[in-house]
Amino acid sequence: MAASYDYDPFGNIAGSVxxxxxxxxxxYAGGYCDSTTDxxxxxxxxxxxxxxxxxxxxxxxxxxxxDA
Length: 68
Description:
By secondary structure, the protein is mainly beta.
């Protein structure tokens, strides 16, 4: 095994075992972890583990009265 990760409910790394020389950007729930921004990208949306929230509003979560 090259790497193993344990996460808290919000995607923060709670523990890890990584072999020397191994880099793995694919982490929590299959998202791509950008080490320069600390964001985990899932398709077109990114999750900020520092603030435990998404950086964009979900496209399907529009307000029905406002966006009608």
